[in-house]
Write a structure and sequence with these properties.
The longest helix is centred in the middle third of the chain and has 22 residues. The chain has 6 helices and 6 strands. The protein is mostly helical. It is globular. The strands form 3 sheets. It has a two-stranded antiparallel ribbon with strand order 1-2. Helix 3 crosses helix 4.
Length: 191
Amino acid sequence: MRADHPEFRLGSVLATSFTATLTERAGDPVERIPTPQRLVDWLAVSGLAVDSCTTAQLDLARELRESIHAAATAAATQAAPPASAVQVINERSIKGHAAAVLTPENTREWRLGSASGVEDALGVIAADVISILAGERDGRLALCASPTCRAAFFDTSQSRTRKWCDMNTCGNRQKKARFHATHRKNSSPAQ
């Protein structure tokens, strides 16, 4: 991974990890796929390796990412997903030609159909969010409690009350802020 780009924030759910390629949405946004090559890199670490990516394909990917985030945000707030987001998700799903294959280790792996495969990879991501939004997976969509992050994540905790998209980043940052605020309050001189 190149040092001049921010690290990827990878989770265990493909669709919401994809939305995390744009972080700090309510603060100073951090674009983690600023170039076609960075999308190729993200797809590779997500098990969807492709040969190359064009600027037009990067635009399709970002459109899908924002549509997933809009639909996931709506689901997390128990609102109807925007029709435009549903349309983009469905289009990307339909245009992909990937197949799920079983590995010798009894895990699922995706085989992309076309030479470049970007559209196929986007189809896999779209299919993943469709399974989540359709209620086919055990968990719930939630929004990060960090006021600057507001990332959508898929909560599979037993109680379904997780607050942070990632405890090591947003959760830790919030805990530190609370600790420092309490420490300052307790150490300020009495008046």
